[in-house]
Please model this.
Amino acid sequence: MPITSFEPSEYSTWAAIWRAFIDRMNATLSESQYKSSWSRIQDPNGDLHGLAARDENGTIVGLAHYLFMGRSWKDTPVVYLEDLFVLPEARGKGYGKQLHLAVAAAGAAKGCDAMHWKTGLQNDAAREFYDRLGAKSECRWYDMDLPYKQKES
Model:
């Protein structure tokens, strides 16, 4: 189960898999956002990184996107796993674990001593997967759209 970077010629495959993930999240992205994210992944100096899980035939069956971030509590960076998705027909074969461990290894290679990510509270399968990996969660993440709009009482 090789985990590799994406080749520049693999945009269509990457976009189709990421679109399947975005659909699963009940979200939508503009085509320009797909192209922007792809450009950032392909830029060797870019902030967004991507990995592909490939089956025994070299077909891409999953992806991971991640970023490195500084933090105020330590001088070491943290790797943030933003997206991890394996096509439904390829699940249960270890691709998710391999992607997760490859992101962890990329973080360790950059001096990170922690990896963060968030998972929807309703995503029981993902939460069970992360529990099996030995991950822990002692807090709840919040999101707020900007610019801030006062909530009416």
